[in-house]
Amino acid sequence: MRPFLKLFYWVTLSAFVNGVTGTEIARFPILSTAEIAHAQPAPTRKAIADQLYNQGRQQYQLKQFAVALDSAQAAVSMYRELNDRPSTAQALNFLGTVLIQQKDSVKAIAAYQQSLQIAREIRDRRSEGNTLNNLGAIYYRQGNYAKAIEVMEQDLAIAQELKNRPSQREALTNLGLAYRASGYPAKAVAYELQSVALARALNDLSSIAAPMQAGLEFAGSQTRNMGTVAEGFRAWFVSPALPPAPNLRVIIRNVTTGINQNPSPYTNRTYDKGWISEELTLGFGTKHNGDSFVLADGQNSFTYEIKQGDRVLESGAFNATITRRNPPALPAIPLPGTQPSLDGDGRDRAGSFR
Asked: What 3-state DSSP class applies to 316?
């Protein structure tokens, strides 16, 4: 399975394409489905179906999507005739992926849903998880984040049941991205931090998504340390290296050039529960001003310390790009003028009703 971070413009084959090397591609001739069906001496129909399926995978890797579609459809048809349900589910999953490349999301979703139904009926949990991952990717690309979250939470549950930690990490990453895109930064952070913890346990730090840096989550923003905000907007601090814990606080200072550092604009917030700090209320200006955390319009530079009492547990710096949202302009007030003179029947003197 692949995280959504790598699926903005395509859907991968999950486990089914992995492991096909250039040597393997060269080993099998690329035949038409008719040539395979009429090959002599005739192999068993199961062998023909398997050859069609493998040929489709090879064609897909060679980006020959039109012929890969023919091979996948033929394989699905033959597996169904043979009542080979595990292979049918696998071939349908692959068919859905080819259909994505053919930009036919409707048919792709239908193929995935058929694969999912069979996988559930035969209790093939691994196949079910792979198909759920691919369905989630389609829904994410379509902007249907609620549906993406629904199926990816099912995928996560299966990965946890199977104790498949790489799949768990990928599902957690996907859920973080989907929640972030749907406007729930706190839930996004919860999944992202769990994904980071698993990545560290698996020694797979290269897979950690770019948003997993320390910094600020802005209300309404989908990207950490970037937001379009107005006076009174809210933000929260988060660190992937050190999640909230009892008796922790975070002190954040805005050290941007041009902002008065005497006194230094800073905020001191609790960082003791959940996945993010106590909220900050934002403001704009050049010096500390009341209860608002002062920002500049544009690039801002911050330092932070996470403390337990007087002990500094983590410190660092980060930048954030802020776009100030101005309040909407008030509607113009019409100037007083001469009102039309109405006759007794409600008409003006030109005769039109008003």
From this structure: strand
Enclosing H/E stretch for 327: none
Asked if 125 and 162 touch (Cβ cutoff 8 Å), the reply is yes
Write out the two tokens for 340: 């039309």
Are both 148 and 240 inside the same structural domain? no
User: Could you tell me the pLDDT band of residue 48, with boundaries at 50, 70 and 90?
Assistant: very high
What is the CATH number for 64?
1.25.40.10
Please give the residue range of the domain that contains residue 241: 226-324
Whose tokens are 């239908």? That residue is 110
What phi, psi does 133 have (nearest 5°)?
-60, -45
Query: How many whole angstroms separate alpha carbon 86 and alpha carbon 79?
Result: 9
Backbone angles phi, psi at 248, to 5 degrees: -100, 150
Q: In this predicted model, which residue has the larger pLDDT, 213 or 194?
A: 194
The pTM of this model reads 0.64
Whether 98 is in a domain gets the answer yes
Is residue 144 located within the same domain as residue 230? no
The domain tally of the chain equals 2
- Copy the structure tokens of residue 61: 């890797």
Edge-to-edge strands, sheet with 293-295? 215-218, 234-238, 280-284, 293-295
Beta carbons within 8 Å of 225's beta carbon, 6+ residues apart: 213, 215, 216, 318, 319, 320, 321
pLDDT band at residue 334, thresholds of 50, 70 and 90? Answer: low
Work out the pLDDT band at 267, boundaries 50, 70, 90: confident
Give the burial class of 256: count Cβ atoms within 10 A of its Cβ; 0-12 exposed, 13-18 middle, 19 or more buried: buried
- Peptide bond preceding 327 in cis form (omega within 30 of 0): no
Q: pLDDT (tens digit, 9 = 90+) per residue, 129-168? A: 999 999 999 999 898 999 999 999 999 999 999 999 999 9
Domain shared by 97 and 235, yes or no = no
- Non-local (6+) Cβ contacts of 248 within 8 A are 242, 270, 271, 272, 306, 307, 308, 313
Q: Indicate if 24 and 137 belong to the same structural domain.
A: yes
- Residue 24, domain member (yes or no): yes
pLDDT above 50: residue 221: yes
Percent of the chain with pLDDT over 90: 53
Indicate if 131 and 253 belong to the same structural domain. Answer: no
